[in-house]
Amino acid sequence: MNTNLSFNQSSPEIKPRTKAYIPVKYKFIIGHIVAFLWLCFSVYVSVPWVFDLAHLVSFPLSVVIIAGLAYIPGYLTAFLVVSLLLDRQPPLKTEYPDKAVTILIAARNEADKIENTLKYIAKQDYNGEIRVLLVDNGSTDQTVEKARRAAMRLGLDVTILKEEKPGKFHALNKGLQHVSTDLMITLDADTLLHRSAVRYLIARIESAPVNVCAVAGAVLVRNSRENLLARIQEWDYFLAIASIKRMQGLYQGTLVAQGAYSLYKTEAIREVGGWPDAIGEDIVLSWRLLEKGWRIYFEPHAVAFTDVPVSWVHFCRQRSRWARGMIEALKAVKPWQQPQLFVKYLTMVNLLLPYLDTIYTLCWLPGLILAFFGYYYIVGPMTLLVVPLTLIAYWVLYQYQRSVFRKLDLKIRRNRIGFVVFVLFYQMIMSPVSFWGYIQELARLRRVWE
Using H for helix, E for strand and C for coil, what is the string for the chain? Predict the structure, then answer.
């Protein structure tokens, strides 16, 4: 993907929606009907597989394993595919809002990146006032000095605060005390905004019902040319994460308004007490907002680019931290406590993820080794049934993302090797890393952010 961030100065027109409208509840029902039919087909064709495995591990355990490897992933993927096919983004009521907004940045030792981040804020094509609150969280480098110089050079309204207590949530809450605008955007210090990013975020929330309190932006990978690990993550952000957020946004319950780049109503954040003391502070915050009856949208045209980990150590720490954050959210806000039906369902799905990652880690990976020696008790041709569904979901999302990129004057960068590795091997990496994150949280091990 071309992420050099050179943008066309012209703003795309938003065309009115012409296709027949299907109410969200009917899309939800249709998605589950198709997913259930797929499940029935999967169960029917897998009967020999179930009984072959049962000879080794007992019938109940065989069903538990195969459900985790094929039935449930297939059901969820089928539901995702149908949801993506039925999704129609609501039209914007205004393309050029002008409401004042504060961009809140928590920074710690970001001297090499903060100037560039501020430069892309200054390039926004937004008509309203943009204020920047930079909270220095105990930096030992020249983050503050470089931010001050950049602000003067760019003519940006930047206020710099200090928060010595370590922890991103401390820095964000310190900044929250000084936000005086109705809307605020959280932005990581290494995240670069597309020139229309702020405009699209605010246009979406200004066009949404009054009970929408947040809009998650689309975060993509900037440093995908550094190595193979970054290339793989480029497709993860571009296809997998984006498809899930788009599906959740369709059902008005995006589960994570990520702290790296999201828009919030300031009053809503204060209503839930700000950011919690959690390793996944943005996940817990989002679930608490949803628990209060607020809704969270996703805006695919509000694009920002971030640097992803390029070392395996940092990657594993980040993704295990995400897994821990999900467990924290499940403990803080039980899915059945969510007042909205769609959100209740979406958060219930997260209850299944530890089970699926555990089965994949402890059963599928050993089964793959056995398959190389001709023993197909666990991994065999039947496990490939989910692959076509996954490829369909990615194809649908790819076509949609391509249209988004055209509007934003961006190009999809060629990354075939990264795509092949992503499709064939990424889950082999992700499930064990997530499994380790669950173990860390259950054992209450020390939290590591970097």
Answer: CECCCCCCCCCCCCCCCCCCCCCHHHHHHHHHHHHHHHHHHHHHHCHHHHHHHHHHHCHHHHHHHHHHHHHHHHHHHHHHHHHHHHCCCCCCCCCCCCCCEEEEEEECCCCCCHHHHHHHHHCCCCCCCEEEEEEECCCCCCHHHHHHHHHHHHCCEEEEEECCCCCHHHHHHHHHCCCCCCEEEEECCCCEECCCHHHHHHHHHHHCCCCEEEEEEEEEECCCCCCHHHHHHHHHHHHHHHHHHHHHHHCCECCCCCCCEEEEEHHHHHHCCCCCCCCCHHHHHHHHHHHCCCEEEEEEEEEEEECCCCCHHHHHHHHHHHHHHHHHHHHHCCHHHCCCHHHHHHHHHHHHHHHHHHHHHHHHHHHHHHHHCCCCCCCCHHHHHHHHHHHHHHHHHHHHHHHHHHHCCCECCCCHHHHHHHHHHHHHHHHHHHHHHHHHHHCCCCCCCC
